[in-house]
Amino acid sequence: MILSLAAAMSSGGLPQNTTSSASFDPSSLDPWLDPYPDLPGDVSPWDVALCVTGTLISCENALVIAVLFYTPTLRAPMFILIGSLACADLLAGLGLILNFVFTYLVKGEVVTLVSTGILIVAFSASILNILAITVDRYLSLYNALTYHTERTVLFTYLVIGLIWLVGLILGVLPALGWNCLDDETTCSVCRPVTKSNAVALAIFFLLVFAVMMQLYLQICRIAFRHAQQIAVQHQFIAISTTKGVQTLSVILCAFAMCWLPFAMYSIVADSSYPIIYTYATVLPVACNSVINPIIYAFRNPDIQKGLWLACCGCVPSNLSLRPRARTSSDV
């Protein structure tokens, strides 16, 4: 599925106009209904939307990376994982921009495979980093007493290295022959990914989503159990726990709404389906990389403090100047 997403924007090429002047095509009234206009040289509005989205993704995540890099206090494992996620999304944004350039300015099978590989690595790493953050939050609650002794920065870097290694392996597969460039009949909804590969990867994504959902359910149960055990602070903890559960629900729903449509479409559809449906399911996937910095970075008070210091050299009164210890379970 991740491979199929990566190639969604790499099909390139604009078909020539074979329609006579006497015929009438209703889709010509709305360029959004026809992602490949008949007139040579026209640019698809969908591709423009993806390029603009890529630019927004790049700006957001570059800001997150800059704040994490230039703030010495943000070196805990939680922030390292957030930084890795920001790097993956930044690469995804740059990949979308490059794909637009390769589609309309530099065409060919080589650049198609290059842009496909970049997007594969980026979105693979993004999904796996989100899973790693979810596991990190669960472990910080499940092993609350021993978490900070067992969990080291070195271990975090090893996990991140494994994530990027998996993404890199997936990214080079199309260049090694795992594509449908030689047999267009085997293409999935996204060229040059084959139908069988797209289905396998979509199923893998659904398994990852199921694991995330189970972990978040366990996090909610542990949080409520902790709230019941602290009778003195019962009212405060109850309010805090309810807010945390609501936040977890937003995180899970946002991830599902962005990725599930494309995953399911990759399973049921093939290259014979109208490409507009592919664009309509790929755009929300790209938007997930826009949402990630908001969910995992900009909501964090320590990162907010770093942003204020970087932008205006001051911190609002509602943010303490004293560094506050936060755990990965903070949502």
From TrEMBL:
Q: What is the recorded name of this protein?
A: G protein-coupled receptor 185 b
Q: Which SMART domains match?
A: 7TM_GPCR_Srsx
Per its UniProt record, what InterPro entries does this chain match? GPCR_Rhodpsn, GPCR_Rhodpsn_7TM, GPR_3/6/12_orphan
GO annotation, cellular component aspect = plasma membrane
Lineage top rank: taxon: Eukaryota
Q: Which organism is it from?
A: Hucho hucho
Domain annotation G-protein coupled receptors family 1 profile: ranges: 60-296
What Pfam families does UniProt report for this protein, alphabetically? 7tm_1
Q: Which family does it belong to?
A: Belongs to the G-protein coupled receptor 1 family.
* Membrane topology annotation: Multi-pass membrane protein
